[in-house]
Amino acid sequence: xxxxxxxxxxxxxxxxxxxxxxxxxxxxxxxxxxxxxxxxxxxxxxxxxxxxxxxxxxxxxxxxxxxxxxxxxxxxxxxxxxxxxxxxxxxxxxxxxxxxxxxxxxxxxxxxxxxxxxxxxxxxxxxxxxxxxxxxxxxxxxxxxxxxxxxxxxxxxxxxxxxxxxxxxxxxxxxxxxxxxxxxxxxxxxxxxxxxxxxxxxxxxxxxxxxxxxxxxxxxxxxxxxxxxxxxxxxxxxxxxxxxxxxxxxxxxxxxxxxxxxxxxxxxxxxxxxxxxxxxxxxxxxxxxxxxxxxxxxxxxxxxxxxxxxxxxxxxx
Length: 317
Fold this sequence. Notes:
Number of helices: 7
Shape: globular
Strand content: 5-15%
Radius of gyration: 20 Å
Low-confidence stretches: 282-301
Number of domains: 1
Structural class: alpha+beta
Order of helices and strands: HHHEEEEHHEEHEEH
Mean pLDDT: 87
Distance between the termini: 44 Å
């Protein structure tokens, strides 16, 4: 995209409204870019408009994050992507961003930042490894397997802004409130854990019969989705603001025009390592505690006890 003067802040509910906002002169996008945009709108059309969130829920989307300022809530459909090896399809977004009023604000894509962790975990006997040894192996695995930035939107040139999230733990996936509705406020998205804390979360999760971890385990007894927690060493992400015009640009990391509720939090609250970040993984935010999130002593003692116990469930094969 070239330099552009945007229309007033606007809701976008169709492809024509998209072009009115981002390309009123008809000179901003090239034909290859328009081909991608048109393909995306073909796939997201049911989620635009007043009933978009209801349509997404009916299609199987569930909340991936609590409400975040500049993002809204992230929703994804577990049946649309391979959770064990997430790869981005330019025409089929990995997920949807909805504002506080249930309007589609944007879409996002995710792709693995490292080689999939499933094969690493399946190759190990976790009952014989201490947390310290496993942490060392995990750090080495990330150093050796970091993947390059995706190229699926190279047609858009320098306007493309990929960012990354690392050492992610997402709790309460698929949770519902007393009315039986999917309950985004109870989803807890955490990121940027220290390596040892991420490994601790992995071990605690695998040892707890009440926790089913995507993409490492399956347990259909919990119903849909067949997991209630997800752990990821890291994934690359990009947003496209197709439902809420964004003066910062089509691919900007955040959108200041998204309607939020009183429950919305700053993304900084999801950071847990106490470090300054320069971009989602790079946003210039500081973890809320200002110091590493060290587990309680009782938890650490329990972790060492895990090396003497069998894992509670069979890992996904």
